[in-house]
Amino acid sequence: xxxxxxxxxxxxxxxxxxxxxxxxxxxxxxxxxxxxxxxxxxxxxxxxxxxxxxxxxxxxxxxxxxxxxxxxxxxxxxxxxxxxxxxxxxxxxxxxxxxxxxxxxxxxxxxxxxxxxxxxxxxxxxxxxxxxxxxxxxxxxxxxxxxxxxxxxxxxxxxxxxxxxxxxxxxxxxxxxxxxxxxxxxxxxxxxxxxxxxxxxxxxxxxxxxxxxxxxxxxxxxxxxxxxxxxxxxxxxxxxxxxxxxxxxxxxxxxxxxxxxxxxxxxxxxxxxxxxxxxxxxxxxxxxxxxxxxxxxxxxxxxxxxxxxxxxxxxxxxxxxxxxxxxxxxxxxxxxxxxxxxxxxxxxxxxxxxxxxxxxxxxxxxxxxxxxxxxxxxxxxxxxxxxxxxxxxxxxxxxxxxxxxxxxxxxxxxxxxxxxxxxxxxxxxxxxxxxxxxxxxxxxxxxxxxxxxxxxxxxxxxxxxxxxxxxxxxxxxxxxxxxxxxxxxxxxxxxxxxxxxxxxxxxxxxxxxxxxxxxxxxxxxxxxxxxxxxxxxxxxxxxxxxxxxxxxx
Length: 553
Known about the structure:
Layout: E1 6-7, E2 23-28, E3 34-40, E4 44-48, E5 66-68, H1 74-84, E6 89-90, E7 94-98, H2 107-115, H3 121-127, E8 140-144, H4 170-179, E9 182-186, E10 189-195, H5 202-210, H6 216-229, E11 243-247, H7 261-275, E12 289-294, E13 304-305, E14 308-309, H8 310-328, E15 332-335, E16 337-338, E17 358-359, E18 365-366, H9 373-393, E19 401-409, E20 419-421, E21 431-433, H10 443-448, E22 450-452, H11 455-478, E23 489-490, E24 493-495, E25 498-500, H12 503-506, E26 512-520, H13 524-531, H14 533-550
Helix pairs in contact: 2-3, 5-6, 7-11, 8-14, 11-14
């Protein structure tokens, strides 16, 4: 069978973010019918459906348009790969893939096509230690049979990335991670030693787990530093059992050595969580005041990756949460932000960024770039606090106030799933006032632009927020929604050389507050989920279920 394909000129595409144009290749089916294949950046391979033989399709395949690689049968997948990559060598023990389209291909795409899952990209890099992660035309990547998907004749076994502590609650999980460390000192100073387990990587199982770094630059830089500190010359070739030395000054608070202030603060908060009794509101959430905040918006699209942008997608989830709460509960619900052209509606398809948004203060504050973006961020907590104050004045229960801010991050691609930030008590100020110079005539700033917190209120704020976060993680797990591995609940963001708590929860007077990172846009599986309206609806339902569970003793 001759699978040689003829490359066509790249199609012209218009996207929110600049991406390489897809590669189109013309080939023929075994019956001799002309057909097109399409390879898209970060989206993978698809085939024109109209002429595909039935044997090349799964039962779920829709042949009216482009058929995704996942909807091809094993025979169809093998044919499509051979047609698109005619120079590949399919041997008994391995496939040797020659990179032909480096602008469109990636290690992740290669892993998704040949192994069945993009998360295997790190294993592919280990198998090809002499090749750079940035693909070059002509490079030949070795894909051993042990990694090939079952559809392509491999073992079909996905790596077991689970560990026994994955099923523990947050406190027990962190304690288990701490128990895996031993502390020592050498000529370069004090360190915490960790012995890598099978299937673990330096980036995710050491840097992301034991430090507060999650952004790509910070993770990569610290991984290189730790590798050198540990005498590791090749981060791809680390074997199980390798001892990794983490300088103590990079450790997150829960993993600091005995006697440190960070560890003492961590233990104080954990004790407060155990002492704090939950507030009862019943399944209908009677008497609960909820403020929902969708991050970014207007001229600020937020994080971007994989053809997605943060603002519209988290706004859609927020609007779905609002609708479910209004339809199914008696909670009082408000939003901090509105897209004028859309209102409070959700959408099935989100094709382009929305360029108009307004904070719902009095008068509304347009997120139009005329004022620094920090102003619109601050106005969110000011508005929420003003609404909470009005609720308390009408004899509402101050303990039944909840503030949730929805976001999507752009982290190291090895990180996947939801992460929740709570206000770390140690980083919440005792007092703060928002200056009015750039806020115009916003009435809420005059009434609620200043906050004060006692030490007890700071502790309670973090404790109750951690309790809610645990309820949310349980709800997400129940619906099989991915959760960030290692430490999905965090009380600090570390980027560059500083750490902080996001302003929307740092200054919130709600009894419970959390910033929810729904997904990591840099991770292709997360991006695919966020693009799917069914996933966004499932996520919203899980949030509502978590709120109900939290207000139930």
